[in-house]
Amino acid sequence: MTAPDHPLSPPPPAGSPSATDRDGPATSQCVISFGSNLGDRHELLTAAAREIARSPHVLQPGGLQTSRLFETPPIGGPGGQEPFLNAIGAFETTASAKEVLSMLQELELALGRERRHRWGARSIDLDIVLHGQLIGVATGLVVPHPRYTARQFVLKPACDVAGHFRDPRFGWSLSELASHLSAGVPSLALVSGSQQLRRLLCTRLSREHGILTYVAAQDSRQVTTAATFPGRPSPVTSTVPPGFASGLPAAEEVADTAHCRPVTDGQIPPPSGPWVSDFLPSLPTGLHPPDLPAPQQARVPRLIARIQGGPDHSGWPATHQMWPGGWRWPEYRLEIDDLDWAVSELASALDSMRCTAEPITDDGHWW
């Protein structure tokens, strides 16, 4: 189910009508995620899929296309949670992202969703992943989903029904992104915000979670960051809430730990496991996932983690601001309205990159 001429769809065959040849409002390809780990998970997801399929927002004849059901372990949040069932749905729509979100939230409430904790257990969780070429933010809505790029439990199911769809920010398909996450160890390079804040995040990850971190050596003049290297992602003015950074200790007051290693030349040494850096390491050139030997893949960050001030402070910067020199690399949005949560979110993001996602149905006809 694809829309000819749509930027997330394959090229239309010769002679096929384009979107501009058809009457009526413009259509968009919408990708949504399903999740549940409370109650009768299969029954809840079935009820959600059937209601969505009946919605006037889902255009026919293509209707709602769904992936297989996948079972994944709970990540982050309170302990003692049951495994999740996850799936992805794709459909064509003339509805806005906000209209689709309202439909999903009303359905969550009808199925008993209670919003208590981030990463907490939930009877039903429905999110917009992509909505056409939209890159934007509104109250309660950021599109593309700000953290889906780190989630294998989203990307693996997406490959069933939407693997060819491309993220409008950096141009990679969902299948390319899924392969890229699996090609190297889970890793994030922090950009934007102050170096002081990035250093503190790395130090806390090292101390509290035992995560290997790399920090730009204080006396090095060779380490190149996103702020100074042409063609790399622009850091954009930090949107950390006013007064937040003033409470951070000076960089020299943040002691290194056994897991926090200084880097002087911008090159990540061969890592022994998941890692986070407070600078942007050297990246290979090209617009698509690099085809590198395994040792080199391990030294390239899977994602660039862009620090933002929180859901009410800013959306994604415009594409020309993110990529001033034409460079395109997948990003992850890290909201810093709460430092403790940001540290745990980074740790959870690394876990999400390597979590198992096993199909439990043979196809998408589970509802």
UniProtKB/TrEMBL annotation:
Pfam families linked to this entry: HPPK (PF01288)
Cited InterPro entries: Hppk, Hppk_sf
Signal peptide: none
Region spans: Disordered: 1-27
Record's keyword terms, sorted: ATP-binding, Folate biosynthesis, Kinase, Nucleotide-binding, Transferase
Pathway terms, separated by semicolons: Cofactor biosynthesis; tetrahydrofolate biosynthesis; 2-amino-4-hydroxy-6-hydroxymethyl-7,8-dihydropteridine diphosphate from 7,8-dihydroneopterin triphosphate: step 4/4
One example GO MF annotation: kinase activity
GO biological process, one term: tetrahydrofolate biosynthetic process
Residues in 7,8-dihydro-6-hydroxymethylpterin-pyrophosphokinase domain copies: 118-129
Entry keyword Zinc: no
Top-level EC class as recorded in UniProt: transferase
EC identifiers of the protein: 2.7.6.3
SUPFAM superfamilies (UniProt xref): 6-hydroxymethyl-7,8-dihydropterin pyrophosphokinase, HPPK
PANTHER family: 2-AMINO-4-HYDROXY-6-HYDROXYMETHYLDIHYDROPTERIDINE PYROPHOSPHOKINASE
Functional note: Catalyzes the transfer of pyrophosphate from adenosine triphosphate (ATP) to 6-hydroxymethyl-7,8-dihydropterin, an enzymatic step in folate biosynthesis pathway.
Family in the record: Belongs to the HPPK family.
NCBIfam families: folK (TIGR01498)
Protein's name according to its UniProt entry: 2-amino-4-hydroxy-6-hydroxymethyldihydropteridine pyrophosphokinase
Species: Roseiconus nitratireducens
Gene label: folK
